[in-house]
């Protein structure tokens, strides 16, 4: 009746629905937090697959992290909305996201866990700062 494959497929669909529902009801700030969480989870999976020697799964996980950084976090930057005072911040964040992507690519090509750790740490620092912005706004 239920095989382990059916269970995994069902659990995956259930998790996907939960994420989609959360995304539909999330504020723009929460969506960015979800992107950080997704990128960090993908890096964690890449680290796991790297340790296991699963090259294909590692590559898929790194690709997912890169996609989130490039097409989610970096693409959400808006220099026009930032105004003159925020233009430098947008420029610096763009450069940092580019660097994170480079480290992820290097980690994938060279099987370098330290490069994964560096990308993970940088995303963690950014996510922490982003979450503090929300906490500060809620307290005000």
From TrEMBL:
One Pfam family of this chain: FliS
Keyword annotations from UniProtKB, A to Z: Bacterial flagellum biogenesis, Cell projection, Chaperone, Cilium, Cytoplasm, Flagellum
Highest taxon of the lineage: Bacteria
Subcellular location: Cytoplasm, Cytosol
Protein name from the UniProt record: Flagellar secretion chaperone FliS
Main location: cytoplasm
Keyword GTP-binding: no
Family the UniProt entry places it in: Belongs to the FliS family.
